[in-house]
Design brief:
The structure is a single chain. By secondary structure, this protein is of the alpha/beta class. Strand 6, helix 6 and strand 7 form a beta-alpha-beta unit. Helix 4 crosses helix 5. The radius of gyration is 17 Å and the shape is globular. The relative contact order is 0.12.
């Protein structure tokens, strides 16, 4: 029903693919009459756009998970405590975590005992690198997020197999981009070309 309250987490509000995807999702929910909460780890140029949407509450709760940290668990515990205070009794019914960088949102959903969906677009040879120098502790938290997430959503079949050693079940694929393993033409395109150029050559509309 319309009382259903989704929460969207994004790592920033810059004008880039991932934050724009969140904006698109939120806009669709709003048009169907839902009240939405958007939580971003950083400010950005999309801030005013989100604020212009009806029935959207925007929360900037800064957390820098890519910076070296002596105690990740303590940092996340404080982050969860701050979010608890911000939400009060209005905790979302489900949390959508957008990109690998939003893995704390998955852990927060488990902390609250609510459903989570984790939208993963990125490919990392070593996922621990995204939390920069935090080593095995950081990797363990990512593994924990994969384990605890209600459902992981990948952008392509390739990504679902790429992360299969982190999550073997309860995931789905929603095609939102190019499956690089399925399109032979991409092999002829130099990797240095930007995604927008690849999409143009393959006649795939921009998101």
């Amino acid at each position: 029903g319309k009382n259903f309250h989704p929460g969207f987490f994004t790592h920033n509000l810059e004008i880039g693919g991932a934050p724009l995807l969140v904006f698109d999702f939120v806009n669709k929910f709003v048009k169907h009459g839902f009240k939405i909460t958007v939580i971003s780890a950083k400010k950005g140029q999309l801030e005013d756009k989100f604020k212009s949407l009806k029935n959207v509450r925007l929360i900037i709760k800064e957390i820098d998970i890519v910076a070296p940290c002596s105690n990740l668990e303590l940092m996340l515990k404080k982050y969860f405590h701050d979010l608890d205070k911000v939400f009060g009794k209005s905790i979302p019914d489900i949390i959508y975590a957008n990109t690998m960088l939003s893995y704390p949102a998955v852990l927060y959903a488990n902390h609250c005992g609510i459903l989570s969906r984790w939208l993963i677009h990125e490919e990392y040879s070593h996922p621990e690198l995204i939390i920069n120098f935090n080593g095995q502790k950081g990797l363990n938290l990512i593994r924990e997020a994969f384990k605890l997430c209600s459902k992981v959503v990948y952008e392509s079949n390739y990504l679902s197999q790429y992360y299969i050693h982190y999550r073997k079940e309860n995931y789905e694929v929603r095609q939102g981009g190019i499956d690089f393993t399925a399109i032979d033409l991409v092999k002829k395109i130099k990797r240095k070309k930007k995604v927008m150029h690849i999409r143009s050559e393959l006649n795939i509309p921009m998101q």
